[in-house]
Write a structure and sequence with these properties.
Number of strands: 9
Largest sheet: 5 strands, antiparallel
Helix content: 25-40%
Radius of gyration: 25 Å
Oligomer: single chain
Order of helices and strands: EEHEEHEEHEEEHH
Distance between the termini: 60 Å
Structural class: alpha+beta
Length: about 210
């Protein structure tokens, strides 16, 4: 089995004192080798995908803004280091029963409505512009700017029942630089205009501004 510069070989051994393989056994091995070839190809493709995923997560974990992936029930599936630090410190956001919430009691409804809209956009039950919200923080810090974006829903398979449905982007206006528009465009399949709009909304700008 050849794949680029890689080569995989299958061997079948038996003790020297045994008789030679019969024609029937050789045919059976030929039939079995087809399944083995398929298994090796599948293992190779999975290893490549896992490597790419690990590399992507490595990059996401070092971004200077928060990235939180949510499933269809708005439960967190993954948070990068920036977002996890905010959650641990209850700095504008906190985690309750697996759901991201506003740390300030009076802001609790804001992220819930925003995430609900993103999930409806993901499932095709809404047709609107993703919203952004600002959440109060302790120590007189400038409010966090959050925006929930729906993830593509173009592949239907029973193996992706618990897949991510939305991503929550969190910008700390106390820090710069902002979310790169090109990264948003490539990562989430947005148009250039949509990516620029998302960038400004997460930064805290308004549509009117």
């Amino acid at each position: 089995l050849h794949q680029g510069q890689q080569r995989t070989k299958f061997f079948v051994y038996r003790p020297r004192a045994s008789r030679a393989f019969t024609r029937r056994e050789i045919v059976r091995f030929g039939q079995l080798s087809g399944h083995l070839t398929h298994a090796v190809n599948m293992a190779r493709r999975l290893a490549i995908q896992e490597h790419r995923l690990h590399a992507a997560l490595h990059v996401v974990d070092r971004l200077k803004f928060g990235v939180i992936f949510l499933d269809r029930l708005a439960r967190i599936t993954l948070a990068n280091r920036f977002a996890q630090t905010l959650l641990d410190r209850h700095d504008g956001i906190c985690l309750r029963d697996g759901v991201v919430m506003a740390a300030h009691r009076d802001d609790r409804r804001r992220p819930a409505g925003m995430v609900h809209l993103a999930l409806n956009l993901h499932s095709g039950q809404a047709d609107a512009v993703p919203r952004r919200v600002s959440l109060r923080r302790p120590d007189m810090k400038r409010p966090l700017c959050l925006m929930a974006l729906p993830l593509p829903c173009d592949v239907e398979t029973p193996f992706l029942g618990g897949r991510d449905a939305a991503v929550l982007l969190i910008n700390d206006p106390e820090l710069e630089p902002m979310v790169p528009a090109e990264w948003l465009r490539r990562r989430y399949g947005l148009t250039s205009a949509e990516a620029r709009l998302a960038r400004h909304l997460v930064k805290g700008d308004t549509l009117r501004g």
